[in-house]
Amino acid sequence: MRTCRATAAGKLTVxxxxxxxxxxxxxxxxxxxxxxxxxxxxxxxxxxxxxxxxSTDQQMTARTTPAQAKExxxxxxxxxxxxxxTARRKVAEAGVPETDHGEEISSGFxxxxxxxxxxxxxxxxxxxxxxxxxxxxxxxxxRAAVDTLxxxxxxxxxxxxxxxxxxxxxxxDEVPECR
Length: 179
Hints:
Layout: H1 2-25, H2 31-61, H3 66-93, H4 102-128, H5 135-156, H6 166-174
Helix pairs in contact: 2-3, 2-6, 3-4, 4-5
């Protein structure tokens, strides 16, 4: 009985090891599938960032107390940070496209979203740390935080024109999710 179990366990180990090798030999998604996944991840992110940007602009001109503005801005920047992380995670889940420089391209998208996520988080933390006792000082601090956020955001943007894959460029132009 003991040798039967050992033999079965040995066979299972060989089957699992073979399965791991076969799966690791498989390439990533096709350029079209990857582009569709990435665009599907970025579409809700863009919508949310646009909504949050509009809300932030409204908040900056609204007649609220510094404490109300602080609460709203912290929530808005936290939402942008969360939306950026969700998009980053979905892009990571899309895998690495089966194309030249696929890893570099996938990494570029993820890194860009990480930097955006982190910029929103720093802006949120900065606003959260501002004293609301003096309105002018508070709003000066908010402006400085937003200026820094804009610079960091611009610096983190991925230049899709530098994609090193004609297949991916074509896929981004053709798949419906990217239109």
